[in-house]
Amino acid sequence: MGRLTFIGLGLRGLGGLTLEGLEKARKADKIYVELYTSPLAEFSLEKLAELTGKKPVLLAREDLEDKGGEAVLRDAEQGWVAFMAPGDPLIATTHVDLRIRALRRGITVEVVHAPSIYSAAASISGLQAYKFGRTVTIPFPQPGYQPETPYDVVKENLSRGLHTLLLLDYRAEEGRWMTVREGLEYLASIEKRRGEGVAHEGRLVVGLAGVGGCDVEVYGGSLKRMLSQKFTLKPQTIIVPGSLHFMEAEALKAVAGVKPEELKVEG
Q: Are 18 and 124 in contact (CB under 8 A)?
């Protein structure tokens, strides 16, 4: 019986790779890596090869989405395969599909977890993780294409007093990362059309950059002020806070530099 081990790479470089993940990657017969589902700054395939003693095989989007990960599954039927992915390895839907396919073929599956933006964004900002609502991604706008789903999700979460984690688009094939500014401009442009007060200039927002490293950038304030805030690290993420517990408010002032008057914005 073959073996497939999903191993999380964490959030930035190789620092988020756990000792357990490294040990199992070294013991595996073959290593596959995907880097298209989530941006992973400062990552090096060459360094991973040095650490594991094996040359990793880099997967493209079509290898998993169009071909169903067949190459990975065939090798896993014959031996031990390590499948490495950014963050926690089973957050992406395509990876869950690969896991199901492996189990149906009688392949033993195990998971080695690693830091994920879903938990790290809350902890680094000082917001309470259980007060986050639905997460959504802001895509790069294209001519005739600007989905309003991010705006709607923020609106729904705010109506319930919940925080919103806004993931920002990443085009692996272009090496292009959406910035906090671009994400806020996206929301503001929808606000201009709809005028429902979801992304007005005074809306409290928090920008994160380089989460997973020691030099992470965390800045918060009114949407208008954050449009001019400079973020230098990658990847970047946005949080739109909902109702704040007094400890969350104190954390945002201390950690993100939010001004007292900016905390008074209502739902």
A: no
Question: Is the pTM value of this prediction over 0.85?
Answer: yes
The tally of domains found in the chain comes to 2
pLDDT digits (tens, 9 = 90+) for 36-70: 888 788 889 999 999 999 999 999 989 998 898 99
Say which CATH number the domain at 90 has.
3.40.1010.10
Tell me the pLDDT tens digit for each residue of 116-133: 999 999 999 999 999 999
